[in-house]
Amino acid sequence: MRDSLWLIILLIPPVSAWAANTDSSAQQLLVAAESQSSLFRGQVSPFELDVDFVAQVNVPTHGQMTLKWAAADRWWRKIVLGTFEQIDVRNGEKLHITRNIAFTPIPVQELIDLVEFAEGPQQLVVKKPKQRAENGVQLVCLLVEQKSLKGKSHEVCIDSLTHDLLSDQWQESPDERPRAEYSDYFDFGAHRYPRHLELRSNGSKRVDAKVRSLTTAPFDESLLVPPQGAIERRECLDMKPAIPIKTQDPFYPWSANENRLGGDTTVVMTVQADGSVTGIQLIGSSLRSMDDAALHTLRTWRFKPAMCGMEPIVSDIQVVVKFRTR
Predict the structure, then answer these.
(1) E strand or H helix at 115, and its extent?
(2) Confidence label for 2 from pLDDT (cuts 50, 70 and 90)
(3) Which domains does the chain have, with CATH numbers?
(4) Between vectors from CA 96 to CA 50 and to CA 34, what angle results, nearest 5°?
(5) Average per-residue pLDDT in the chain?
(6) Neighbouring residues of 87: CB distance < 8 A, sequence distance ≥ 6
(7) Which residues of 224-251 are buried (b: 16+ CB within 10 A; e: fewer)?
């Protein structure tokens, strides 16, 4: 049933990055917008960022994030969402993760992507700059495409006067079009950062985050000692994500297809250095028969592993299997 199924492999954050030179003025505008908002790439002094947020987890659920930052490869972060808690410690190329369940919930990763909206290392090709006005603000909206994902386009809108990046919209699947919005910018050192960050999908709010405080603060080096039992992963500057090379499609359950039923099954899994998969966890469920079909097939997938230079490394990815009838 290949024609009835879409598979989406979520390997990268859906946020903007350095632009490639297609339209020089548009490219310069995008680079300027990203550079002035890039706390984690261009900041010199240590700082602390505190964020309150509400995420849609069946029902709206309150959460908090605290980030203590010393450098791009030396930081500590704690995220709480309801009863979930996760602490991340980055020291050099080692990232240590401690959490009270086996996986990171999707809204938590969406929050991280929102907060790091100007930090991605991927190159974007800028196309078709257009000017328009919204709520009295003159915008320049750029159609951009990631070099590594041909055909996956974003519309990024920037305030033409302040160069604040105001929105980023993209097509995640044929029936889902998320939109990230950033507003109420304020000055912090040489940067500008939004007090309000929001992620919507098809008009429904998924994450609503507000910056409670952003201040320079000395960094406590003892925070870099990883908690006992933490998961260790390696990260590097030019890390290449895992690439699927053997991906049999799950079988569309007969009863669901006959009754024209669809659904999304979302899993996280670990891609080992040899390209095999382990640790498959169901984090977003549809019908039981669809979940079973997806889990059964994903165990057979094989990847070219993530790479740090010429060295294969272990990595974690999310896979969304979308069952749709025509």
Answers:
(1) helix 106-115
(2) very low
(3) 15-233 (2.50.20.10), 236-323 (3.30.2420.10)
(4) 50
(5) 85
(6) 76, 77, 78, 97, 98, 99, 227, 230
(7) bebeeebbebbeeeeebbbebeeeeebb
Answer for the pair 186, 123: CB distance below 8 angstroms, yes or no: no
Q: What is the pLDDT of residue 55?
A: 97
Would the pLDDT of 124 be above 90?
Answer: no
The residue count for the chain: 326
Residue 21's DSSP bridge partners are none
Give the burial string for 144-158 (b: 16+ CB within 10 Å, else e): bbbeeeeeebbbbbb
Question: What is the mean predicted confidence (pLDDT) over 21-41?
Answer: 78
C-alpha dihedral sign at 66, 46, 41, 140: positive
Question: In which band, very low, low, confident or very high, does the pLDDT at 7 lie, cut at 50, 70 and 90?
Answer: very low
In this predicted structure, what is the pLDDT of residue 234? Answer: 95
Q: The tokens 């040899």 sit on which residue? A: 274
